[in-house]
Each structure stands twice: as structure tokens, then as C-alpha cells.
Design brief:
Helix content is 9%, strand content 48%. By secondary structure, it is mostly beta strands.
Amino acid sequence: MGAHDRRAREVPVAAEEIHAEMVSSVWKVLVQPGAQVSAGDTLVILESMKMEIPVLTERTGTVQELHVVEGEVLQEGDLIAVVAST
């Protein structure tokens, strides 16, 4: 292993992966990839047992990836989005 390999592993990744916490369906998508978001912003709204559940980001940054569409059914642990710090 070279010095470059060690250095790459020591640098923390400045991204937040957001996962579904329960079985739910995607009721509304509020952002698209490339959108600028602030900590606390709602990315999507899920629906489970007739309750609306906002999915928030904890980071200020850019929506790097969005893995859901409206109407999709999610299982616990499914990846919803990735937000990268700017």
C-alpha cells in the first residue's frame, strides 16, 4: 500500500446518506439532484399508516443523488438520497 492509498482513506467523506427508517411510500419529492439545501430542509415526504413523514437533511450542501420517485414503496433501510457538503 502506497502513501497515496493511506491518505485517501484518512480523508472523511463529506456526504450524508439518507435512508428510510420504516416501510413507507414516497408521497412527494421536493428536491432534484443538484439542488442546494440547508440543514433541516425537507427532501421528500413519506407516507406510512396515513401519516406524513418529512425526511430532512442534517447537512447544508448539494443533493448529489436521489434514489426515489413519487409513489414508490420503500423498505426500511432503502437509500433515499445523498447530500454532499459544499
